[in-house]
Amino acid sequence: xxxxxxxxxxxxxxxxxxxxxxxxxxxxxxxxxxxxxxxxxxxxxxxxxxxxxxxxxxxxxxxxxxxxxxxxxxxxxxxxxxxxxxxxxxxxxxxxxxxxxxxxxxxxxxxxxxxxxxxxxxxxxxxxxxxxxxxxxxxxxxxxxxxxxxxxxxxxxxxxxxxxxxxxxxxxxxxxxxxxxxxxxxxxxxxxxxxxxxxxxxxxxxxxxxxxxxxxxxxxxxxxxxxxxxxxxxxxxxxxxxxxxxxxxxxx
Length: 252
Fold this sequence. Notes:
Elements: E1 10-14, H1 19-30, E2 34-39, H2 42-52, E3 56-60, H3 66-80, E4 85-88, H4 104-132, E5 135-140, H5 153-173, E6 178-185, H6 193-197, H7 203-210, H8 221-232, E7 243-246
Parallel strand pairs: 1-2, 1-4, 2-3, 4-5, 5-6, 6-7
Helix pairs in contact: 1-8, 3-4, 4-5
């Protein structure tokens, strides 16, 4: 029988109290990793960690605050002694609407959560990975940063930043044996679903959005988890700076 893909690895997955992040955290644990289930909602993180079992630890974190981020990394090292993988999955959006209707506070929040958090997390985790002699950083970007559509202009811009900074980080950190890749899912039925549509969540409105995905369905946590598991594994040791669409053909 083949060994587990992430045996002996330690991973942090942000925003893993639900949605894609929950799928990634559970897949990582199944593949042998110790997992920090990090979320702003502690109850949600504790539920996922409890369902995973002894190989998971729930940590509450606001990824827009440097002290919270440092605490998350410190707790990881205290519990598991190392850090091999960080999945920057937590994100937010504004409602699908004309670009000028988005207020400044909402714009700032989208960039704080989606972009600044990666800046703060990198400052905390890169020194640890350098000291260890390598690591993996996975940033959850979006198809919105590859093939943007009207209505989500500022969100698209934030994910375009994530996709590009992943490539830039990949070049800069390659000599440190730190691989950086972006995972770019198409829309899935997560907590942000209705905001992405900008319409009530009805079967008719779902059908309208599904019709733009050639393979005829939304992205599922298991789709993102499969790619996140592969990209974090030794099988992907020569892959860095990749924008990996998980989109059923949406960006073609």
